[in-house]
Amino acid sequence: MTSPEDGDAGRDRGLELAWSQALTAAGIRSDVRGRAGDSEPLPHRLAGVSRVCPDSAPAAEQMGAALAALLIEADATAPAVVRHAVLLVGRLPMEESLTARVQAALAAGHAVAVQERLLAQQEAIHRAAITARDRAEEALRESEARFRGLFGQAPVGIGIGDTDGRILEVNEELQRMFGYSLAEFRDRRVEDFMHEDDAAQIWQDYAALVAGELDEFRTEKRYRHKDGHIVWTNLSVSLVRGAGDRPIFQVAVMEDVTEQHRLQERLQHEATHDSLTGLPNRALFLHRLDSALTHPRPEARVAVLFLDLDGFKFVNDSRGHLVGDRVLTAVAGRLAEAADKHGAFLARLAGDEFVVLVTPPADRLDQVAKDLVTALDAPVELDDLQAVRVQASVGVVELAVGDTTAGELLRAADLALHAAKAEGRGRVVLHDPSRTARQLTSFTIAMDLPGVVERGELALAYQPLVRLRDGGLHGVEALLRWNHPQLGELSPDLFVRMAEESSAIIPIGRWVLRRACTDLVAGYWPTVNINASVRQLYSPTFITDVRQALEREGLRPDQLRIEITESVIMQEGDAGPIRALGALADLGVRIVMDDFGTGYSNLAALRRVPLHELKLAGTFIKGTDPERGPDPVDLTILTTLVELAHTLGLVVTAEGVETAEQDARVRAIGCDVAQGWFYDRPIRLPD
Ligand code: C2E
Ligand code: MG
Ligand code: MG
Description:
It is a single chain. By secondary structure, this protein is α/β, with parallel strands linked by helices. Helices cover 47% and strands 20% of the residues. The strands form four sheets. An eight-stranded mixed barrel has the order 13-14-16-17-18-19-20-21. A five-stranded antiparallel sheet has the order 2-1-5-4-3. β4 (230-241) and β5 (247-256) form a beta hairpin. The radius of gyration is 56 Å and the shape is rod-shaped. The chain binds ligand C2E and magnesium ion (2 copies). The site of one magnesium ion (MG) has 4 residues, from β18.
């Protein structure tokens, strides 16, 4: 065996190069190293083993085995490696039989090693597979347990069904939410839980989901609990797919949001309803009106009835707001009943204003209005308190939806209401476009009323009260006039009622009182009559105002007469106004009952009021037929009435005497004083 020291360096490098080429030819990178991280590259190590040729069979086999081991260790296991290694060994300078042994040992060693490695790898794979299977089973068990835990104790309702809609599983929360047991659920299908008010979209989404076209959808949906009440849920439905993406299950998860929903509904209700009466409010009414006006057919008709309680402010002021509120609530209930009967929509706009929407208008709209008005006929009973009578005026407008807007419609209804108010209380007036201009006047009046005293637009006209006995002047009546800058002179009939409904009558009344006293001082007449509204009698300062006005002008109290109307007696159960009159009478001021005979009071009722004089209403004198006057029976009654008044110590004045016949008549029935155009028209003092 030649010693390594004998080989020269050039030969070694040649051998290394040869191994390198052989490996490259077998598709192995020549710089590959052994797996143990050897510092030397494989060709160098192969050259190291093969540089000393063996001189015996065992040495040859040893060399072959060593070469195989090196190759295997470097993962050079491909069959091509063995072929090229065997070829290279064949070129080494050694005895042919030994070459064959080296080659055989190399090939065998390589094959065995490859086999061993394969077996080892298979074993490892097998072990890994077993471990993986064990782990997967465990993971499955864990996830199943986790799922059961989640499913069973979830605070949300969970239901699982197949894609045919059969219910397979429901958790406890869902059973609680719906009131059905698991068995009862399983007897049902998903579609059985449809609600008649569900949005169509929900069931479209559902169909798409079970058909596999949609993986998930969320919505808010109501269900009916077994006992009938509504359960609101936040619902999320998702699709579970199996092999080949085939839809197999649907999973519904729902959160019970009934409470939130109730709260939301309550807030919604509060925003759209009046808290006192529970009726829909203005906002909801306008919304309904807008929808009514978007009717697809422009010729479709819509009607609005605008209803306002007559003199309701007076109820509030005289009986207090608590009573006022109770009356409004009762009124709302009655109106709602009347509106319901006609399928109409009633809302409270503000204070004592109500509005009714009729769509499509009933063929007898006047019947709707009549029913609303008569609903208020009976007095409102207030258990412990005196009952309150209310009545309402109604403005009605009916138009085609194509011809109007919400604003126009409401304005027209409002105008009609004003016309109704102007005609007197408890009236129903249908909107008439030609009347608009005239009604605009009453709008102007209402708008301009506040501040009328401060602007100095008021004036008084005086009409003589003639003593029938001798034609002397009993006194004068001060009659209010408003010099309106645009509308000219306005008579009190046009604005006093409006002033009474607002508090404007108080400063106006005070102005009349002072002005009448000032004018009296001029000495043209001995006494003055002023008209006072019942509203003024409720004013805590009225008595003081009267006393001060008299004192300021140095007048005797009996130079002033205060005319009040029968409505004083109608303030049932409220002694306030009568007490005020008592205080005035005590002061020495004379009290006159005006327009007697237009109300419903009788002479006996008059005894409750401290009275000095009585004015018989003009209509009383004229009778029902103005041409012929009262018939003999009426005249007898009138004569008796005057006699009775005299018995009560009252001075009797006849009003509205326009003709000589009427003058003769009032004398015949025994009146003391007369007033009317027959004697003189009301006149203004020069400024
Ligand atoms: P009244 O107190 O009954 O006043 C009489 C009304 O009859 C006056 O109308 C007067 O102009 C009118 N008149 C007088 N003679 C005749 C006649 O021969 N024939 C006819 N047809 N009418 C006649 P006026 O001035 O328009 O007043 C209307 C009502 O307004 C008054 O009725 C009174 O209730 C009220 N009023 C007048 N001034 C005041 C006031 O200062 N304060 C208050 N609160 N009301 C007033
Ligand atoms: Mg009068
Ligand atoms: Mg009168």
